[in-house]
Write a structure and sequence with these properties.
It comes from Pseudogracilibacillus auburnensis. Residues 187-277 form the Peptidase M20 dimerisation domain. One of its GO terms (molecular function) is dipeptidase activity. This is Aminobenzoyl-glutamate utilization protein B. The chain has 470 residues and is of the alpha/beta class. The chain folds into 2 domains: 3-181 and 297-454, Aminopeptidase (3-Layer(aba) Sandwich), CATH 3.40.630; 184-293, Alpha-Beta Plaits (2-Layer Sandwich), CATH 3.30.70. It is built from 14 helices and 11 strands. The strands form 2 sheets. It has a 7-stranded mixed beta sheet with strand order 1-2-4-3-5-11-6, with helices on both faces. A 4-stranded antiparallel beta sheet has the order 8-9-7-10, with helices on one face. Strand 1 (53-56) and strand 2 form a beta hairpin. The protein starts with a helix and ends in a 16-residue tail after the last helix.
Length: 470
C-alpha cells in the first residue's frame, strides 16, 4: 500500500465518528424524494468546510448539488444519494416498531450511501494535497433515486458532461462488485376525466373516470400475455373517486413499465398508450398522460469495476462486533422461512452465503451478464460516463430491500461498518485513477465500444421539458 492510499485510510479511520454521526442524522431525517433539505445540507456543509466548491439546485431540483475540488484532468465523479422510502419508518430493534406510523424510512440504505462518498472524496483530497497529486474530484448529490428522477434529469441537463468517470456503491448484504445490469423503466400516470352525476338517480348523465381506469387496467392485464417474459408492468390506482353515490369525474392510475432493454420499454409503452385510448372510447371519457421519468438499463464498466474490486480487497470486509452479530441474529429470526434463501438465489450469489448472518469476507464477482430485477437511475449515468459500483455488507445475508429489517440494520452499527468499508474503497479507487490516467482512458474506450454496439443514448425525457418540481 503506497503513501497516498495510507493517507486515505488513516483520514477515514480518524474521522469515522463524524461519518457515523452523519449516517445517523440522515437516517433520522428520513426525507422523501426531492424533499431531502436537511440531508443534502448536512453533506454540503461537510464538503464546504473541507474546501469544496458547491453548486446547488442542479437540473431544477433544490436538493441536487455538485461539490468540486481541483482543476485538472482527470475528473473523477462520486455519486451519492440520500432519499428515503414511504411506510418504512423503523427503530433499530429486531421487531417491527416504526418511529412514526406510516412514516418514511431508509429501507434502501441511502443514509449510508451519500456519507460514504463524502468521506471518500474528502480523504482523497487530503491525500492529493499532501502529495501534490493533480486532478479534480466531484461529488454529485443526487436526490430522488427511489423514484428514478434525480440522475435522469441531471443527465438530461448535462450535469455530468465534464466528468471522465463515475464511481458509486450501494448498501447490500455481501462485499463484492456489482457486475450485473438492471431493468430499463418508464414511470407514467394516466389521469382520466369524465362527468359526475348521482350514481342512483341519473347515472346515464355521468361518465365514470373510474370505469375508464378499471378498463385500462383490464386491458393492460390482457396485454401482459403478449409481451416478453422478462418485462414487468406494475400499477396502483392513486385516485378512484370520493363517494359511491357520485360518479367519479376524475381517476388516476400509475404504472411502472420495466424490461431488460430500453427499446423493449418503449415498445410496450406505446401499446399501453393505446390501451388508454381504448378505455376512453369505451367510457366516453378523456385522459392525460404524465410521463414522470424513465431510465435505461445499466452498463457496468469492467475497467472501473476491476479498480473498485482491487480496492475493496485491500480494505477488507467490515469488522463486525458481538453487538452487531446479536442484532443480525434478531433480524434474521424475524424473517419468514425460506426468505433468505430466496433473496440470495435471486441475486445469483452463492447459496452458502446463508450459512452466516453477516458476510465477513470479500466475494469474487459473480453476477456479470445477469440482469438484476430492479431499476436504478445510475444506469443513465453509465450510458454517458464510464460508471461502476459495488456492494458492502450493511444488512444480514438474505435481507430483502425495502423492508423494515433493512431500515433497522442500516441505522445500526452493522450499516455504519459497511459504510466505512465503502468510503475506504471509493477513496482508494479515486487515488488509483488519479495515479494511473491510462485506466481512465481504457474505461472510456470500453464505453465507446458498448455504445457503438448498443446504439446512442436518447434521454427518456426527450419530450419532457418541465423540471421534476413544477
Amino acid at each position: 500500500m503506497n503513501k497516498n492510499e495510507k493517507l486515505v485510510l488513516d483520514w477515514i479511520d480518524h474521522n469515522k465518528s463524524e461519518l457515523f454521526n452523519a449516517t445517523k442524522l440522515i437516517w433520522d431525517y428520513a426525507e422523501p424524494p426531492l424533499q431531502e433539505e436537511q440531508s443534502s445540507k448536512l453533506l454540503v456543509d461537510i464538503l464546504k468546510k473541507e474546501g469544496f466548491k458547491i453548486e446547488m439546485g442542479l437540473a431544477g431540483m433544490p436538493t441536487a448539488f455538485v461539490a468540486t475540488w481541483g482543476s485538472e484532468k482527470p475528473v473523477i465523479g462520486i455519486l451519492g444519494e440520500y432519499d428515503a422510502l414511504p411506510g418504512l419508518s423503523q427503530k433499530t430493534v429486531g421487531k417491527k416498531e416504526p418511529v412514526e406510523e406510516n412514516g418514511y424510512g431508509h429501507g434502501c440504505g441511502h443514509n449510508l450511501l451519500g456519507v460514504a462518498g463524502v468521506g471518500a472524496v474528502v480523504a482523497a483530497k487530503k491525500a492529493m494535497e499532501t502529495s501534490n497529486l493533480k486532478g479534480t474530484i466531484k461529488f454529485y448529490g443526487c436526490p430522488a433515486e427511489e423514484t428514478m428522477i434525480g440522475k435522469v434529469f441531471m443527465v438530461r441537463d448535462q450535469v455530468f458532461k465534464d466528468t471522465d468517470v463515475c464511481l458509486t456503491w450501494h448498501p447490500g448484504a455481501h462485499n463484492s462488485l456489482w457486475g450485473s445490469s438492471t431493468l430499463a423503466m418508464n414511470s407514467v400516470k394516466f389521469t382520466f376525466y369524465g362527468k359526475s352525476s348521482h350514481a342512483a338517480t341519473n347515472p346515464e348523465s355521468g361518465r365514470s373516470a373510474l370505469k375508464a381506469v378499471q378498463l385500462m387496467e383490464t386491458g393492460v392485464q390482457y396485454l401482459r400475455e403478449h409481451i416478453i417474459d422478462a418485462a414487468k408492468i406494475h400499477s396502483t390506482i392513486t385516485h378512484g373517486g370520493d363517494e359511491p353515490n357520485v360518479v367519479p369525474e376524475k381517476a388516476q392510475i400509475w404504472y411502472y413499465i420495466r424490461a431488460p432493454y430500453r427499446k423493449d420499454v418503449e415498445e410496450i409503452y406505446e401499446r399501453v398508450l393505446n390501451v388508454a385510448k381504448g378505455a376512453n372510447l369505451m367510457t366516453d371519457t378523456e385522459h392525460e398522460v404524465d410521463l414522470i421519468t424513465g431510465c435505461y438499463h445499466m452498463l457496468p464498466n469492467k475497467v472501473l469495476g476491476q479498480v473498485l474490486f482491487n480496492s475493496l480487497k485491500k480494505v477488507g470486509p467490515p469488522a463486525f462486533d458481538t453487538k452487531d452479530k446479536k442484532f443480525a441474529e434478531e433480524l434474521v429470526d424475524s424473517f419468514k422461512p425460506g426468505t433468505r434463501e430466496m433473496v440470495v438465489r435471486l441475486t445469483g450469489a452463492p447459496g452458502e452465503l446463508v450459512d452466516t448472518n453477516l458476510h465477513d469476507s470479500i466475494l469474487e464477482p459473480f453476477d456479470e451478464g445477469r440482469i438484476l430485477q430492479g431499476s436504478t437511475d445510475v444506469a443513465d449515468v453509465s450510458w454517458n460516463i464510464p460508471t461502476a459500483q459495488f456492494n458492502t455488507a450493511c444488512v444480514p445475508t438474505g435481507t430483502p430491500v425495502h423492508t423494515w429489517q433493512f431500515t433497522a440494520s442500516v441505522g445500526s452499527g452493522i450499516g455504519q461498518k459497511g459504510m466505512l468499508v465503502a468510503a475506504k474503497t471509493l477513496g482508494l479507487s479515486i487515488i488509483e485513477l488519479m495515479q494511473n490516467h491510462y485506466l481512465v482512458d481504457l474505461a472510456k474506450e470500453e464505453l465507446d465500444k458498448e455504445i457503438l454496439n448498443a446504439g446512442p443514448y436518447e434521454s427518456p425525457l426527450h419530450n419532457v421539458t418541465s423540471s421534476p418540481i413544477s
